[in-house]
Design brief:
- It contains 7 helices and 7 strands.
- 33% of the residues lie in helices and 16% in strands.
- It has helices spanning 15-29, 43-50, 61-71, 85-89, 121-129, 154-162, 183-191, and strands spanning 3-8, 33-39, 55-58, 76-79, 95-99, 115-118, 137-139.
- It has 201 residues and is of the alpha/beta class.
- Strand 4 (76-79), helix 4 (85-89) and strand 5 form a beta-alpha-beta unit.
- The longest helix has 15 residues, at 15-29.
- The radius of gyration is 20 Å and the shape is globular.
- A 7-stranded parallel beta sheet has the order 3-2-1-4-5-6-7, sandwiched between helices.
- Helix 1 (15-29) runs parallel beside helix 2 (43-50).
Length: 201
């Protein structure tokens, strides 16, 4: 029987925490035993409580490692963030690490992971370039919740709020304004298309 202990100690809410939430909810539907060891008082804890997941709130890494040890060697420690990699790989059982960024990967302690999940080909390539064997790295793209529906009037309300005329085409990208996301490339690409005008909010 598969037993998974998710590890994410971030306080805020970003794409990685959204992915943990989607994974937990999907595994719930498959009736797989799982717990989430998360930051006490963090946004992910609140979300997982809301979907009825089993949550172990902890103040930090040492407490997270102790919680994982208490679960035992038949639980897979799944590190979803860089800060939880040591917790998973030095835990009592198998370890999985999800890598979301194509930054240079340090060999240690990541090399101790039984499996590394790359969420994109660039991440997979960066791991290969760092010397991680192909058999240790699995490519599993991030999930999309296809069942999520926005209110039918959401588009009209947003246009009205931003004062966008009804005949103007609108594209939306959501992400942190950091160099790793490279938001300016998208802005430049749209700007360079003939007849387009770009406004950034």
């Amino acid at each position: 029987m598969i037993k998974v202990a998710h590890l994410d100690l971030e306080r805020g809410w970003r794409g990685g925490q959204r992915q943990v939430s989607l994974l937990v909810q999907n595994l719930q539907q498959q009736e797989i035993d799982q717990v989430a060891i998360v930051r006490q008082g963090g946004a992910l804890a609140d979300c997982l409580y809301g979907v009825g997941a089993t949550v172990i709130p902890v103040p930090g890494r040492v407490a997270a490692w102790r919680a994982l040890r208490r679960l035992g060697a038949d639980w897979i420690g799944h590190a979803h963030t860089g800060g939880t990699i040591p917790v998973a790989v030095f835990g009592p059982g198998p370890s999985v690490v999800t890598r979301r960024l194509d930054l240079a990967a340090r060999r240690f302690p990541l090399s101790r992971a039984d499996c590394i999940v790359a969420i994109s080909r660039p991440v997979q390539q960066s791991l290969r370039a760092a010397g991680f064997p192909a058999g240790q790295v699995e490519l599993i793209p991030s999930a999309i919740d296809l069942g999520r529906k926005l209110p039918t009037d959401a588009r009209d309300r947003l246009r009205q709020q931003l004062q966008i005329p009804a005949d103007v085409r609108v594209g939306l990208t959501v992400g942190a304004l950091v160099a790793q996301k490279d938001p300016l490339t998208l802005v430049r690409a749209v700007r360079d298309c003939p007849g387009n005008y770009v406004h950034v909010w």
